[in-house]
Each structure stands twice: as structure tokens, then as C-alpha cells.
Amino acid sequence: MEKLVTLIPLFPLVGFLYIIFLGKGLSKNLIGGIGSGAIFLSFVTSIVVFSTQLGGGNPTIVKVFDWITAGTFDIDIAFIVDPLSTIYLLFITGVGFLIHVYSIGYMHDDEGFNRFIAYLNFFVFFMLILVLGDSYVTMFVGWEGVGLCSFMLIGFWYKDMKNNDAAKKAFVINRIGDLGLIIGMCMIFMQTGTLKYDDLFISGSEASSLNGWYLHAAAIFLFIGAMGKSAQIPLHTWLPDAMAGPTPVSALIHAATMVTAGIYMVARSSDIFASSEIASNVVVWAGLLTAILGATVALTQNDIKKVLAYSTVSQLGFMFVALGLGAYSIAVFHVITHAFFKALLFLGSGSVIHGMGGEQDIRRMGGLKKYMPTTHFTFLIGTIAISGIPPLAGFFSKDQIIAFAFEENMLVFVILSAASALTAFYMFRLYFLTFHGKFRGTHDQEHHLHESPKVMTIPLIVLAVLSIFGGLIGFPHALGHTIHFHHWLDHALEKTVVMPFLDMSLNMELLLMLVATLIAACSIYFAYNKYVTKGELALEDDEIESGTHKTLAAKYYFDEIYDALIRKPVDAASAFFAKVVEPTFIDGLVKSVSAIPTGLGSVAKLAQNGKMVMYVMAMILGLILILITLL
Questions:
Q1: Residues 339 and 297 placed together within one structural domain of the fold
Q2: CA atoms lying within 13 Å on the CB side of residue 565
Q3: Cα(131)–Cα(267) distance, integer angstroms
Q4: What are phi and psi of 361, to 5 degrees?
Q5: What is the per-residue pLDDT across 291-342, written as a single tens digit (0 to 9) for each?
Q6: Which helix (H) or strand (E) holds 74?
Q7: CB 3.0-4.6 Å disulfide test: which of 68, 144, 176, 316 passes with 75?
Q8: Are 262 and 226 in contact (CB under 8 A)?
Q9: Which domain holds residue 618?
Q10: Are residues 498 and 626 in the same domain?
Q11: Model-level pTM greater than 0.85?
């Protein structure tokens, strides 16, 4: 098994290197096949490795090579194989493979096709390093790697300055979070002397030495790192702007890589967070605020990808609430189902954009279901899944989070239920405005409307099937299932809280399921009545009069606030230093230092007048001075 584990990240790395250095001159179909094939090989290998963990055995550490040894600090490049890492391997490589195949069709006419496929391989490689690393340090290599790849892919169409700005924004905001993660790692090392999961969690001997304020501070700093990667308030603003990249990138970031990294890191650190009530409460309320913020902002967005982006922000909030409440396995369960339906929705939006000739504004769409039947049907399945309608995947995972909240904190339960209701409304708003009614685009757009090629629609169909049946791995306890998935995952999450609703009465569990379904159904009805029955349309920007609507459309003015409080003062300080401090003080100091030898040289050169008599006299005077000194 050890050799197989090392092959999982090696395949995409080899694919990246081959395409970058040897791919010139090869056909696009061949390049696409190489890139997709590399991820497929990783997926098959991941299945084999995953099968070794089905019995819930002890975690296995696979050492690759020695890396850093400095005094007591000893870090190897090594991989950890346990239920948490292997379940991540499956959906990273499985969903990643489908996105690669889809990209062959979506990006086929792009001049940077080879570079794009190579970057996708590189992205998956770093994500695999992140989840396989057996220590915080190795994880951090993958952590920074996915940040680099997201920068390259968000700004892939770099000739448009807006794309470059979006890439820089994602990079800078993630550096803020990464600083928090580094501080947290340093605090853990200072207190325990190790950053290896084996020493900290598996044996449980070292993590216990974290206590008091040190424990709370370390956990909170770790969470700051997760806030950056997984777009939690107030570090969430980069994720919607990341839609500047090609749509397959959006799907990869939102479903299989990048934003799931923060969930993984907190789940992997479950021993630390479970021991810190303060940090856990911070996680709960940050997630709760993010969930409701993302859901309310999504109500007013008209860019098809930005609606889905704020949906991801909101769903990530649900996951962090679960983590903060101690339901680590449920959070990971929602990561999995979310990967299925969110990849489906993003790739479906890409199919719409492809058919619309690049148009992303849902106000210019409508009636697309008759032109794009496969895209329409699969997008509808994804919409139902994320809305929490049984028996699709989103119902089982999201509503387990809500049920857990019901047992733990009634206020959290109410707010999550409201966010869930909003999710169903804004997603069906998106669906109805895109696929129902009359077409609202130009005649030329309507003339060119077409279904996407099979290389794009087949991944949609596969993801639709996963969105329908993927939730069965956590089938509800009330319907006779013992929820083996959560018990199995508990082998990697030693201090995860045993789900209290396992002991919930059958009637109460069925009642909660019924209430959740009715809430989602009511939201869908309101959306149908508003946008289909009444035929209302999304308002144009200059038609918005309501202050609340303006606030939501402006995303609560976070960007404007950051612009006023951070960017403008920094720009003003930069201008002051450039115009005043640098020329007056820095350049003045340099010029002053250079003026000393220049002045001495000016004096000394007076003696060099070219007259022999002067040189002889200087020599004689010099000899006289030497003799006087000696005598």
C-alpha cells in the first residue's frame, strides 16, 4: 500500500510536468487526455487505498523521505492514511477527474488550453499533498500550493486587468489567513515540541499539553487560517471575485479543492478544537454569520456564477457551524455531498455560459430548457439537492447539521433553518430565471443557443447521479440506518462528539425531517409564484430603490469598507513615502553618504596638477615630516 499512496499525488505532478515541458505540439485532445488520465489514475489508486480503511483500522504513516532536521525539530515528507484523508482523496480525484474531462470541451478553443490543463493538474497535486501530509508542516506545503494555483487560474485570462485584480485579491486575503495558521502552528510547536499528527493526535500524548489560554489562542489562530481558505466572514470577499477564472476553475475551487481545505484542517485538529470551548464558539458564530450573509446576498445577485459563489460561502458556514458544535463527521459528510451538487451546478452554469456565448447575467437568459435539455435537467437536480429536498444528497447532510443544532442550541437551529429556507428560494430563483419564461437575450444569442457537447454533458450526468444518491452514505437513523459513515470517520476524529440525535426519538427525528422539507417546499413555492406564475424579473441596477435591496446587491458594502479603511490609507501612505520620505530622507541619506568621498576626492585632486616641481616639493616635505617624527 505504501507505494500506492505515493502514486496518488505523483500522477497529477507528472501530468503537470509533462504538459508544461513536453506538451508543445501535441493536439488539444491528447493534452486533455493526459491531464484527465493522470487524475483518473489517482482516483483508481485512491479507491484501492480507501478500501484498506473500510474496516476502520489504525492510521498508517507512509514515509517518503527525510526533509527537515534541526535540533528537536524533525519533519519528514510522509503521508497519513486514515478515514479522513482517504474520503477526501476520493472526492478530490473523482470530482477533479470529471472537471478535467469537462474542461476538454469548455476550453477547447482557448489559446492557453495546454497551460490550463497543466495548472488544473498542479492544483489537484497540491490539494492531495494537503490532505495526505502527516504533519501541519507538510499540510502547509499543499496549503500554500493551492493558494498559488488558485492565483494562476483565477487570473488565467490575464489580458483582462479585472481578472488580475481578482487573482491578487484572492492571494492577498489568503495571506492574511495563512499568517494566522502559521502563528497557530508555532504556538502548538512551542507548547508540544511537535507538529506531527501522529504525536499530537493519534497517540494523544502531546496535544494534551496544550491548555489554558495557549490552547484557546492556538485554536483561534488555526481557525483564522481556515477563514481565509474557506471564505468565512470577514475574509470571504475573495471567493465571489474568484469567478473571474474559467468556470471549470470555479467548480474545482468550490467543490474539490481550495475552500474545502479549511474544513479539513479544523476536522484534522478536532482534538484541539474539542478541548477549547472558546474557539469552538468562535467557529460556530463565524460560520453562522457567514451562512446567513451568503444566503441573503445570493438573493440579489444576477451573475449566474456569483449566485453559486455566495451559495458556497453560505454552505461553508453550515459546515463550520457543525465543526464548532463538535459534529466533525457531519461537517465532512456535507463537504462530500456539497462537492457533488456544487460541481454539478458550476459545470451546469458553464454549459449555460458556453451556450450563451459568454453571457453570465441571468437577466439576459430565460427559456433555456428547450434549447439545452440535458443541462436543464441536471441543473434542476443540483438545485433540488442543494435545497434540501429528500431523497437527494443535500437533504441528508445539511439537515443532519440542522438536527444537531436543534439538540445543541435552539438559536443556532433557528438561524440555520432560515438560511436553509433562503437557499431553496435563491437557488430556484436562479433556476426559474435561467431556464423558464421567455428568452431575454439578443436575437443573435438566441440564434446560436445550443446544447453543450457530450464531453461536457456526460460529467453533468455523472454528477447528477451522485447528487441523487450520494447522501445514502449517511442515510437517516430514523429510517433504520445506523449511520456507519460517522462511526467509521470517528476513527480519525478521536474526540468528535457522538451525535446526540442518534438517541433522538423516532417521532422527533421524523418531525424535524418533515419540517425541513416543508420549509424548503414553501421557499420553492414562493420562488415559483414570483418568477413563473407572476412572471417577475430580476431588477436592473438602476431600478433598485429599496435600501435593503441595495445593501444586499452591494454585498453589505464589505468591499467598499475595506477600500475605505485599508486600501485608500495604504495607497495614501505609499504615495507619501514615494513623494516625501523616499526622495527627502532615503535618497538624501544615500546622497549624503556618497557626498563624503566625493568631497574628499575634490580636495585631493587639487594636488594632482601635473607640475613636477610640486610633486618633488611634496616628496621632500614628506620626508622631512617623517624624519622629524622619528627623531
A1: yes
A2: 6
A3: 11
A4: -85, 115
A5: 999 999 999 999 999 999 999 999 999 999 999 999 998 999 999 999 999 9
A6: strand 73-81
A7: 68
A8: yes
A9: 559-630
A10: no
A11: yes
